[in-house]
Amino acid sequence: xxxxxxxxxxxxxxxxxxxxxxxxxxxxxxxxxxxxxxxxxxxxxxxxxxxxxxxxxxxxxxxxxxxxxxxxxxxxxxxxxxxxxxxxxxxxxxxxxxxxxxxxxxxxxxxxxxxxxxxxxxxxxxxxxxxxxxxxxxxxxxxxxxxxxxxxxxxxxxxxxxxxxxxxxxxxxxxxxxxxxxxxxxxxxxxxxxxxxxxxxxxxxxxxxxxxxxxxxxxxxxxxxxxxxxxxxxxxxxxxxxxxxxxxxxxxxxxxxxxxxxxxxxxxxxxxxxxxxxxxxxxxxxxxxxxxxxxxxxxxxxxxxxxxxxxxxxxxxxxxxxxxxxxxxxxxxxxxxxxxxxxxxxxxxxxxxxxxxxxxxxxxxxxxxxxxxxxxxxxxxxxxxxxxxxxxxxxxxxxxxxxxxxxxxxxxxxxxxxxxxxxxxxxxxxxxxxxxxxxxxxxxxxxxxxxxxxxxxxxxxxxxxxxxxxxxxxxxxxxxxxxxxxxxxxxxxxxxxxxxxxxxxxxxxxxxxxxxxxxxxxxxxxxxxxxxxxxxxxxxxxxxxxxxxxxxxxxxxxxxxxxxxxxxxxxxxxxxxxxxxxxxxxxxxxxxxxxxxxxxxxxxxxxxxxxxxxxxxxxxxxxxxxxxxxxxxxxxxxxxxxxxxxxxxxxxxxxxxxxxxxxxxxxxxxxxxxxxxxxxxxxxxxxxxxxxxxxx
Amino acid sequence: xxxxxxxxxxxxxxxxxxxxxxxxxxxxxxxxxxxxxxxxxxxxxxxxxxxxxxxxxxxxxxxxxxxxxxxxxxxxxxxxxxxxxxxxxxxxxxxxxxxxxxxxxxxxxxxxxxxxxxxxxxxxxxxxxxxxxxxxxxxxxxxxxxxxxxxxxxxxxxxxxxxxxxxxxxxxxxxxxxxxxxxxxxxxxxxxxxxxxxxxxxxxxxxxxxxxxxxxxxxxxxxxxxxxxxxxxxxxxxxxxxxxxxxxxxxxxxxxxxxxxxxxxxxxxxxxxxxxxxxxxxxxxxxxxxxxxxxxxxxxxxxxxxxxxxxxxxxxxxxxxxxxxxxxxxxxxxxxxxxxxxxxxxxxxxxxxxxxxxxxxxxxxxxxxxxxxxxxxxxxxxxxxxxxxxxxxxxxxxxxxxxxxxxxxxxxxxxxxxxxxxxxxxxxxxxxxxxxxxxxxxxxxxxxxxxxxxxxxxxxxxxxxxxxxxxxxxxxxxxxxxxxxxxxxxxxxxxxxxxxxxxxxxxxxxx
Lengths: 696, 511
What we know:
A: disordered C terminus; B: mainly alpha; 21 helices
């Protein structure tokens, strides 16, 4: 099945190439539409396979976790803590030197652990065999020396005892014991403990436990929190790597270690499904396009390649390449087929996004050189993330955050969005709101947050150059931006008289909820945010279709000039109501589930100020206000104009575009488990990338 | 210098003289590619006299054959050789051979482009190709120069033929004016450079680059060395059109016949970079930490060059002038890669990433000039208005131009991205994050003017009525010419290893 994923990525390009040589416009349109249908159909077995495996796994995981929690008594926990402390303590020497002097600091232990992980991650690299042998030899040499080291320490302890320094003697005896106890197992069993305890406790706090018994006990019980994750992650294997399916990994640019590395997990699958579906629906919907239809259809398929590629890529370089592939079709689709101010909107869209992606490129290069061995592999980078310093993480996080924030778009980077939406042709607006904005949200989940958890959760921000310490932390900043998006977007939407720009600003408002979910950093909120991305994709796509349908008939979008459409076009109105109420968050439709989860998680969150959550609820109120008002102005009341009497109800192509989305709104609203099952384990594993949430 | 009279009496001097003769004899065999070019120059001049004016354009094939022959010789004879020739006057290393191949590729494309250029019809072309090959020979020497004297000879051998080429359409006033500017700026810059090099000679007592390098590395902080090197840099900066020695470029690029503009933008710049890299490598590579100020100076020049180039390009209406400023900006990007010149990184050394970028730059810039020539041949216009509606009048040409522009912006999956990515990587890897950030901002700025061309091609209505017969622009052969370059740009961009595997192993030898 793995090749199916590559078909999803390159299939559209293939059909685009065939369509390029089509003899006339009609056959080019046909080829592209059938091609996009085939690509969409290919996602179904992938989704089916993934979700069925995932739901079985989910069942067993919860059972295992319960069992583990029961089993995890103090003794087991202490053993782990001892082990980690022992390894660092017994094998680090400090001033009192150890024989040979080769094995000096806890840093060395870490570098060995890291080296081993690196070898495991790149088993097929050229020098892996040699490095593995060297590592084994080093370990063997160390362990061979262990008895000697213990003996030396014991002898020193005797000397200290004779001279009356009991504390020192005790310390040295402890070290001798630790060296012997951890000999042979330290690298295997202690590796994870070390890596995780490194996150908060530097080797000093580990090698010198507090002196008073009470503080000692407190320290140990705090460390048990880490031990828990250790055991859990080991047993239930919540590693992101284990969530990935249909993985293909082929060398692409060997000189820089770039791989064609793709796979899907619970975060990307829904978005891939949505992309392929929406492209097909858009192509069906756009059947009436008269201006250069061949180019239009081909550009849509190129866009699809970029979108699916972004959501599958597991190599940062590849991710960046696909990210940029999305850019040009967007420029041309707005610029050629758009409204009166299309040129301005297209260039603005392009420059904004490019500025963001250049930042992403810089962050990517910084990460690449920071990793040892240098790598673009996202999994390897994630693995190394805990060892990155806070300052480094801060820079990388800032760059990635702005890059993705432009795409989402987050206030104050949002100004390109209304222009692009209003000028774009209907189908491209659908793609833009439905999937392309999600690229930003996806980037937060896939890269910014897991790669820089310390920065993402740090509770103070220091501005470089000035050394100003801001009075709030990153979660509050992100949550605050989300809040601004929600409230500001909703208020501006309320003031619009252009139907399309109202829907565009409602997108700004809805994407704010995703930010709020991210900032809360809890399980429910993360899941809600991921669900909201999908839901907003469905409902905003529908809303843009709805706007397109009425615009094609009335040739204007002035909200105040409509009225009474409901009686004139009953089917259309029925479908439009589903879209509007889903967007408003009516229980029973999909929008509600995502928002409720986000608020649930946000209230649970200990890092997000509560007033923000309360204020954000106001956004729901404003949202209902502008949506209900719009419904009244467009669909209810007297017929706005006698011309409207000639309006026919939905055509076949419009029905095909709208009905599947409406069905999805209802299905997910009633039975969200279909999608939550797919996402859950992945979201938990992303959340777990930072052990801080468990420690604090 | 060895006084001959003395050498006859002094046996050790006589021995040295013999040894140097022996060195020359050994070197001649390896100097065959240059000899082929020289032979072709002579042949072209003679044939040009014998042939009637109308047929003289077919001498293109002689020039092309010489270029292909030299390329084949380099590929088979020199691709793995690293050694000084002619007692250290020049050096043949993989870096030089790679640059030679790049120069030949550029020259071949420019020669073919000259064959179809509208303004060159009914003109005596034999001497044109001869002069171009002479300039190419100079670039060869620049790329492998290992002696301050050879620096001067190389630069002059490139410059003087270029002055003539720029005014080859001498009845064109703009070309004449451009030629005059070029001569004035050029001679001033080489004067300053020669002064700087002579200072270095005075300091070290030797013109050999290895000796000079040893001296510079030992005296990096010396004021005199800095001044001498800065003066030498003026000469190189003129060739690569780096700020503040870029003033000539826009006028000359605009005024010169388009194939010559392309030749200056690509080949001349590549040779300039080769020389700069050789000089910097000698001065900085062994110096470690103490070369800090030098690299900072390069970084400042890079930042200035790209920013000035991009900002000035924003409002250009003439396509060639726009490409001129764009080429200044690209010189800035390449200078950015040069901060890694002393880097120990295996794949991200300064000369390696710049060598890669030169390949990408060659294909995309020449591609853009091919499109300019195509549009000029059909419409006689070089300004932006000639490109209106090109997307509908000549879809393939517009598509090719789009790919070249996308590559010039540096978007994947094109050669421009593969190259720019390495430049950024090299800068970041050498600790010049601020420079990479400036490069990033510049990339965002540059996309505005490149996009403007795309906008004119696709989004603006054609100047001609779609129903009129003048509507369809059929560039015939040039479409395919551009198509081949599009394929090259995409190939280098997607199969990055093809070129990167070679550039990664380039080494610079100082003999």
